[in-house]
Amino acid sequence: MYRKYEQRFDSGVKKYVWSKIARELTEKLGSQYNIQQCDTKWKVLKNQYKSVKKHNDQSGNSKKNWKFFDVMNDILFKRPEIQSPATCSSRTGMNVLGEITNAVEGAVIANNPVEPLAEPNNTSTPSTSRYQSSFMRKRKAAENAIERRHREKMTRQDRYLDLLERLTSAVERSTPAANTNNSENNSDSE
């Protein structure tokens, strides 16, 4: 039934198409069907098809069978959400696959994979190098801040040790005088 209304799905409002399909199913099967049920059932079938196709496309997996796969494959295989018309990655550039329709002339240009539009290059693009230099500046600033805090901490510790040493010296100088005074006081009292 989807094939009967396929053109209308692409050009019209889907709600009205599902309404017609629900009405037709109700008449043919005798059970009551509504728009939501038809739409949900289609989405479930489509997701199941995608799942089976993805599983079967991966190497090393055993083939998964589904009784509606062939019918759904006939309907959905050429759709862009199933068979990507183009892929793009930073490593390989852009690859355009399959038929390309010239929008101006409305003619099919090719039925074979098309050469990549952009050759991948190993040099950085200006925006990438700009981000990279910005990142490097921030990283250098962070390293400088860490280094500065370390120097400040070491200066404080050196100052603390110096003060502790002076305090110890002062205590040692005052201690012999206190000890001699104590010993004089102790000898007087005897």
TrEMBL record:
Xref: Pfam families: Myb_DNA-bind_4
Residues spanning the membrane: none
Residue stretches making up the Myb/SANT-like DNA-binding domain: 4-75
Compositional bias (Polar residues): 120-135
Biased composition (Low complexity): 174-190
Region (Disordered): 114-190
Amino acid composition bias (Basic and acidic residues), ranges on this chain: 141-165
Official protein name in the record: Myb/SANT-like DNA-binding domain-containing protein
Organism ancestry: Eukaryota, Metazoa, Ecdysozoa, Arthropoda, Hexapoda
